[in-house]
Amino acid sequence: MDQRRRKRHTGWWLLLAAIVVLTGIAFAIMWRPALAPQASIPTFDQARIERGANLAHLGMCASCHTADLARPFAGGKPMETPFGTVHSTNITPDRDTGIGAWSPEAFARSMREGVSRDGHLLYPAFPYNHYVRMTQADIDDLYAYFMTRPAIAAAAPDNDMTFPFGFRPLVGFWNVLYLDDAPWRPDPRQSSEWNRGAYLADAVAHCAACHTPRTKLGGPDLERQLDGGEAEDWYAPALNRNSPSPLPWTRAQLHTYLRTGMAEDHAVAGGPMQDVVMHLAQANEGDVAALAAWTHSHLAQAPARATPAQRGGPLPPPAADDPELPRMQLGYALYANSCARCHDVGRAPSSGTALPLQKAIALYDPDPRSLIHIVDDGILPPSGEPGRWMPGFKAILDDGQASALAAYLRKYGAGQPAWPELDEQVRKARAP
User: Fold this and answer.
1) Alpha-carbon dihedral 201, 206, 210, 213, rounded to 10 degrees
2) How do residues 77-92 score in pLDDT, each as one tens digit?
């Protein structure tokens, strides 16, 4: 009897010890201390501020942290994620609502660990899993730049997260899975320009955040690096051997595209990529050239293939024996009446006409979201910026017409298999 009692007591003690240990581990993962506020903002030399400005352009910081162009970096921009809506924060040096009280150490911790000065964990919509590989000198330059912007009082709206993701400490477990703090290492087999581009693409511009698919937990699928992802419900095409581009890219074309949003024989930048281009246009020319060199080295892995883009000319009417003839005839009529007058003319740098649709990458993407958004909303340059313009057709095309046009363009423009569940994809993309 005494022996059984001793065994039972030993079991309870072991269970209690396990609970204490697991609680300690969870606490260590989920809790970070607050750092003391700084009394005043340091001063910085102009060269450091200018280097920080270049990094801010390369990192597209204003894209997420600016909701109102009249209040740059004041945050408040909503970002939809599978786990709810996250609002960007104020990164101006306002002491109460921005980062004016943040010391350089607090700023560096946020960039490397995703932790706010007061100790709360930041949602990984802020790509600190990329910034963690920035050099300390670059982080210091960025700090100098932001701390010399005009201070704007603007508290970020509350986030709207689905249960249980509103409980921020859970982000600590995401960090265990996806926050790799190994320093960035150059590849000695590559040129210094390529390595500069690789560093900027990974640690600063965080290209993989959009161009790599994500797991169900919202982390990058590291087994499919640059294999195509999404941004703001647009498909972000693969930048590796699986690139859907109907024509190969040259390095010069990529450089021009990243700088201006348009390159010969390739579609203009649309959706979130327009913001990227707008910022790269203001970044250091050599850095953009380095990004182009790195990107081209990956896209060049795509095998050569024959596509309709190499033939050109107007798109044909549907074949008489097409099993979806009525739908294809509707799509062709819409193309002939709404698209052909610009796209069949072809595009020159100074023309008002458009790229032949056989060359439009959105027709070759593995899903139709980008094409649907282009048809619905057109291509508009960022607010206040010059650029190519295409009207949207959402107001004049119903769901069936938009779906028929996309199906026709996919089949007779790109020669690709039909997108599965296209009607449903159109309905979802158009949902308010």
Assistant:
1) 90
2) 999 999 999 999 999 9
